[in-house]
């Protein structure tokens, strides 16, 4: 009997290890792919310029995955060592809290959730298994703890003064990395305006209104209603603006984008996207609407995956950036990788120099490369984060 119980215990332990350790890593590796490639050729001119850049990216979903951010990982796209190797100064970290089954760009309902089983197998706190709000709080606390343990090398910026001080220190210490917290959708509010204040207190400073499904705030670009803002959505947008947080319109329905533009004149963000006139995909909103967001002082983050660029090679991403510049003007174009968001990329965060190289090769000036690769995003947050 002891032998039987011992064998059973060993089998249960092996199963637990498989579920809670092996399975999350396998999911991560299978969803966040870097296409195999030989080292990219980088010109001497491009490398010298890149070594002097402050790269900034408007969208990474690294917090969804339980790989160690302080280690150079062999899976996924983003971690702190790879960000530093890529000369990233500022990274927006998004909190993904709910995604539908059979997720697609055309039509999704809100009656399923892929993140619940992921929360369980990755051993997130028990309350996060049933609460979307708790998931967002957990992501924030995880990132803030990384900052606390970093001895100043990683800073979560809550104010423009936080960001300015960290960038000043980075001038003499290139290992200083700044993070900003964002939500991917407003469903963590769970229909309660008080939760906006709670997320502000946790450190969130950019709020996406929708993700892949319609929520309490309004329609998603990939939902079923095509609706604009609900009454709660209008109240939520007003509260977000009142708190000094930045609105991200990525994944919002065209009607929601128009409603937000009608409600406010504050600068807005579309954190990760492509340009519809360059790549005709449902994921990319019409050029005229994109142009209106830019004309209000917004910034548009260009993604790195084929669904929004129609060509995910470094040359293809560079071509999308050039199309965005032509449509929107250089000062409104930024990077929005969507790293670790279940995409396939042809270069990871350590390889940003290849994009610098391809932008120079495409004819951009050094000043314009600096703007797109980071300075536009840095300027935007220095102007639009709340003050102390």
For CATH, the homologous superfamily of the largest domain is named as Metal-dependent hydrolases
Query: Number of helix segments?
Result: 14
Number of strands: 11
Question: Sheet bearing the most strands, described?
Answer: 6 strands, parallel
User: Helix proportion of residues, in percent?
Assistant: 40-55%
Gap from first CA to last CA:
66 Å
Total domain units:
2
Cα radius of gyration in angstroms: 21 Å
What does this structure look like?
The chain has 388 residues and is of the alpha/beta class. It has helices at 2-31, 44-50, 80-85, 115-121, 132-148, 160-170, 194-202, 231-242, 254-263, 287-295, 306-309, 314-328, 353-361, 366-384, and strands at residues 33-34, 55-60, 88-95, 154-156, 177-183, 204-208, 246-248, 269-273, 299-302, 333-335, 344-345. Mean pLDDT is 95; it is low at 4-17. The longest helix is centred in the first third of the chain and has 30 residues, at 2-31. Strands 2, 3, 4, 5, 6 and 7 form a six-stranded parallel beta sheet that branches. A three-stranded parallel beta sheet has the order 8-9-10. A two-stranded parallel ribbon has the order 1-11. It is globular, with a radius of gyration of 21 Å. The protein has 14 helices and eleven strands. The chain has two domains: 1-31; 43-384, Metal-dependent hydrolases (TIM Barrel).
